[in-house]
Amino acid sequence: MNKLTFEWPIRVYYEDTDAGGIVYYANYLKFLERARTEWLRSLGIEQDTWLSHRIGFVVRQVQMDLLQPARFNDELIVTVVVERLGKASVVFTQQVLHANRSVLCQAQIKAACVNLGESGESVKAVPMPAEIFEVLKRAN
Fold first, then answer.
1. Nearest to 83 by CA among 111, 55, 58
2. How do the pLDDT tens digits run along the chain, 140 residues long?
3. pLDDT digits (tens, 9 = 90+) for 53-92
4. CATH homologous superfamily of domain 6-139?
5. Residue 117: burial class (beta carbons within 10 Å; 0-12, 13-18, 19+)
6. What HEC string does the chain produce?
């Protein structure tokens, strides 16, 4: 089965870098998150709509390999591929590529669908609402 790849462009800003002009490692997680958010948006899934129903996605597991540095003002491409779609979770493979397509970072992210509850209540894993699950299933 051929998996669809979503791509999102990002430019490295000064605020993303350390004193040497190299992207600080934790900022790759932000780049990956932004691409997943834009992927959902491209599918018509607005997270703020679901948050008003107390449904959200939380990252449960991250495996990330930093291969080469990105630097201030680089143009990057962040990819999103769904590896596995479960009833209550999604496993993504993502890459951060330089504009020349060399791989700078690769990651596998597992996100779980949760009921956020009210203030003071526990956050609990729940099956994805059918509207979200069906859109993700069709997009994969």
1. 111
2. 357 899 999 999 999 999 999 999 999 999 999 999 999 999 999 888 888 888 999 999 999 999 999 999 999 999 999 999 999 999 999 999 999 999 999 999 999 999 987 776 778 899 999 999 999 998 87
3. 889 999 999 999 999 999 999 999 999 999 999 999 999 9
4. Hotdog Thioesterase (3.10.129.10)
5. exposed
6. CCCCCEEEEEECCHHHECCCCEECHHHHHHHHHHHHHHHHHHCCCCHHHHHCCCEEEEEEEEEEEECCCCECCCEEEEEEEEEEECCCEEEEEEEEEECCCCEEEEEEEEEEEEECCCCCCCCEECCCCHHHHHHHHHHC
Would you please indicate which residues are annotated as catalytic (active-site) residues?
A: 18
Task: State the Cα angle at 32 between 93 and 123, rounded to 5°.
Answer: 90
What residue has token string 């992210």?
109
Give this prediction's pTM: 0.91
